[in-house]
Amino acid sequence: MNDATEDQEPSVVPFSSPIGKTPEFKEPFDLARRLTHAVWVYDIDNCRNIMANAAALRLWKAETEAELAARDMSIDMSTTVAKRLKQYQSGFIENDTTFKELWTLYPHEEPVSVDVVYTGYRLPDGRIAMLCEARGIAEDAPETLRSAEALLHTDVMISLFTKTGRELYMNPAARNTWRSEKTHLPDVFVNSSDYDSILSELELRGEARRVLQIKSDAGLAWHDMSFKNCRDAATGGPATLVTAIDVTELKHARDRASYLADKDQTTDCYNRAFFQRHLEFLGSQQRNLPIALLYLDLDRFKQTNDKYGHEAGDRLLVVVSERIKACLTEADLLARVGGDEFVILLSGTDIPAQVRGRVDQIQKTVCQPFFYKNNKIEVTTSIGVSVIPAHDSHCAKYVRHADVALYESKRLGRNRSSIYTEQMGRIADQRLQAEAELASAFEHGEFELHVQPCVDLCSGKVISAEALARWRHPERGLLMPVDFIGVCEETGLIDVLDHFVLEQSCELVKRWLKSGLKIGLSLNVSPRQFLDDGFIATLSSHAQHPDLKNDSLQLEITESVLAEDQDRVAERLRSITALGFKIAVDDFGTGYSNLAYISKFPISCIKIDKSFIDTLPTSVPVIRLIKRLSEEIGAQTVAEGIEDFTALGTVFEIGCHCIQGNYFSPPVPIADFQKAVHLIETQLEADIIANLGLKR
Ligand code: C2E
Ligand code: MG
Ligand code: MG
């Protein structure tokens, strides 16, 4: 209670009554004023001494009561003291308690330590004030006074208990936490075993330190607590000194940080980092049970994201994680380890036998439609499974096994699960090797373009050519797309290949135009390249080149691309044709069979797939149909894979005059192309036209 003087009128309030008691004196202040020891009344709410007898005025170094009442005691009052006074007030109200404590007052900034007894008094307006009786000025040594004062003001909770846990002393900070006079130490711990462990350690070492959850009057809290065996200075009996600081906020911040470090924010599943650590932990354990490891990947998640937005994608991830959780037991674990990838660890005695059933159950539960803003989105998932045997400490390799099995599920058409086998592992190793080899092939410029002519039987001329990628392998010789396109697509190296082919094709067309060769070039565009966001920009930069006549370039896309998001595809196709490039649909008739779309898109050429040529004459009606369809939409029809004269005659009869096939020429290196063109045109002149009865 530090003092301060203010020029304000004192608000002396008539004395009312001790709480709960009927006043026995009409003027109790008079009685108080007659006492020889200091007595004063402190208004806790307004921080004023509203009455003081002569001894109290001497103690406070005040001339008059009015002068003392004018002092605002809140100035320079420490928060601990302010809290302590509020505590007193509650104590008065709740239990009519009397407190006795050593306080240091600072009248005119001079310290006076006094033993004071505090009692509650109700003021006429109903509020509770504090009647203070000084029981004598403490005349201890300065050191004692100082330590008593420090004990009073510190935020550190200091308390003393008997060996049975009965409270002997609490400083104000501790009293703030436990207001009841008789706190029983064993009762403050949320976890009763904490007290037992502290007792054992005290017995063993004489001291203990813990961060513990405790019950305080304000609710549950976390305290950093130290316990020490000592003696009660008053009785000499054995006691426990307890010091504590409240670390609740710190603990919550730490818990939150570790929660954030372990959990995925979107789905509330564990994240990759946690999963990795957990796997290491499993490896370090002597497990005598196997664990099934599932790698789960949502099929076509990107499409949901692209079509309905990221919010829908996130919602789907949450729903999927909830569906998975519904299939798990306490002993299992779920982590989200990538965009749409989850890892599940299934524990159980009979895992190898049960694994199929549990995986099927998860798959069935996850693969339910998902509704988002009135849209029904079909959900399917591919799963790869491996089993980590008991006692095996190399858990990481089973993640790869599950990944290999997942790949197998995808390869087999998705929406299924596969359990890892050694055979799968071998194939995966080969694929890995192929990937490394391919990457190095791109680096060393081992790729080249070959071109295959396309002949117009009516004019007898080579009207265009198709650019086809080849890999000139240093040991295995010239490799066909079938040997590398698949790996390129799986590994993403298709981007590199696509880029190479587009660059080379543009250069080739420029060269041909320069040398007066008016032949269009058709190049294959992978679905990935077609749907890539930067593709139109790349095409546009090529289109601006003055040496490139854009209608000499045709982009071949497959039917599967057209089956993607139709609006997006239509917009892309329009952008491409607006740049002047032409569009062909490759391998027509083998893929998506909804013909309604074909008239919507700006298509200038349909290429009949070789499989129809191979199945002639059975396929004649289909080829006829395709030809009619092409005519309807004003597109050219090209018959691919013509190897012999019979096939040539049949397609010619149907009306397909544009022919690409080994009959005329297989794909040849660019350098040999002009020679091939010359040969074809000469041969046409001499031979074919006569045989087909063509007139020019
Ligand atoms: P595609 O686009 O349908 O190409 C036609 C394929 O048919 C070529 O095979 C060609 O050599 C082959 N072919 C043409 N006439 C005949 C014939 O009379 N008999 C036989 N047996 N085959 C014939 P290729 O070069 O092996 O290419 C296969 C596929 O690989 C292509 O089919 C295309 O889908 C893909 N591809 C080739 N080059 C590229 C490329 O640069 N980029 C992309 N994304 N895909 C490419
Ligand atoms: Mg093609
Ligand atoms: Mg084709």
Protein model, in words:
By secondary structure, the chain is an alpha+beta fold. The protein folds into four domains: 4-140, 2-Layer Sandwich (Beta-Lactamase), CATH 3.30.450.20; 154-252, 2-Layer Sandwich (Beta-Lactamase); 265-420, Alpha-Beta Plaits (2-Layer Sandwich), CATH 3.30.70.270; 448-468 and 501-523 and 538-558 and 570-692, TIM Barrel, CATH 3.20.20.450. It is 41% helix and 25% strand. The chain is built from 24 helices and 28 strands. The strands form five sheets. It has an eight-stranded mixed β-barrel with strand order 19-20-22-23-24-25-26-27, surrounded by four helices. Strands 1, 2, 3, 4, 5 and 6 form a six-stranded antiparallel sheet that branches. A five-stranded antiparallel sheet has the order 8-7-11-10-9, sandwiched between helices. Strand 13 and strand 14 (341-347) form a beta hairpin. Helix 10 crosses helix 11 and helix 14 (422-443) crosses helix 15. The protein is elongated and about 145 Å long. It starts with 16 loop residues before the first strand and ends with a helix. The model is unreliable at 1-17 and 20-26 (pLDDT under 50). Ligand C2E binds next to strand 20, helix 15 and strand 24.
